[in-house]
Amino acid sequence: MRTALVIGTGLIGTSAALALAGRGVTVHLTDHDPARARTAAALGAGTDEIPEAPVDLAVVAVPPAHVPATLAEAMRAGVARGYLDVASVKGGPRRELEALGVDMSTYIGTHPMSGKERSGPLAATADLFEGRPWVLTPTRETDTEVLNLALELVALCRAVPVVMDADAHDRAVALVSHTPQLISSMVAARLADADETAVRLCGQGIRDVTRIAASDPTMWIDILSANPGPVADVLAGVAADLDETVRALRALQSSDEDKRRDGASGVEDVLRRGNAGRERVPGKHGAAPAVYETVAVLISDRPGELARIFADAGSAGVNIEDVRIEHATGQQAGLVQLMVDPSAAPVLAAALRERGWALRQ
Length: 361
Fold this sequence. Notes:
The protein is of the alpha/beta class. β1, α1 and β2 form a beta-alpha-beta unit.
């Protein structure tokens, strides 16, 4: 691949353009808002000049509702040898594109499983896709050359290709992406009118659950409107669990010992099923999730403190597998939770104490 055209310079389009441009591909940028394309170009993602000849690959990075029309327009204009989109829904847009009567052999649907709560070109980074799954949904009609261009794009973005059927993909993302977004938003909505005293008690748990609730509602309306059925199916299952859990909790309030026992059993059931589901979430490098031990360190809110603690861990020969930061309410300090291999935890704790860090149990 020597040349590419990125249509849509939001987070995903600009990030892909940055990755391609950084690896020597000449990238042309276009957007319905020319200012966004100019911003992406200024960031080093390519040029906002129109290509003089057909490019090797056109990457359509627009909301799902606009994918079919945008692709059809580009394909009829012959702007590229191959075409793909990066929308988070695959089945519906493909069927709409087929109905428009274009040459489907030059097209492949794709979806990089990566993103941020922020949108727009200024949120983009060249490493957004590194190590992340990038779904490809080829059909019998897909030309081998187009599939190879898509695979080359994935490789240049340092992502991991995953081949799926389009409708299977939509059911999968309903479960692992779209429903979590709605549930996170529902939990966060409970905080909107909550008493300030309660909000001040927020800890890492509520921050973890509500992190993605900060996402752009307009973007998510576009996504959910393109995949409503599978999301509704998953939510129906969640709703059934909620009903059962509410009944179990009400039973725990009963003065009847048998009802309380049944209530406790119902709550335990959903918690244990949650344990079993969580164990299936892939861990580092896609392997089964490892069990890490946490070393908690008190840290002040001063520039360079995180860098210093990571450097001290590195000097001790300990690899930090994950990290969480919990800020202390109303104070210029916080708690850094360093997740490490259990065998490395005593080594790290001793090294950090020796360097003057205050550890917490």
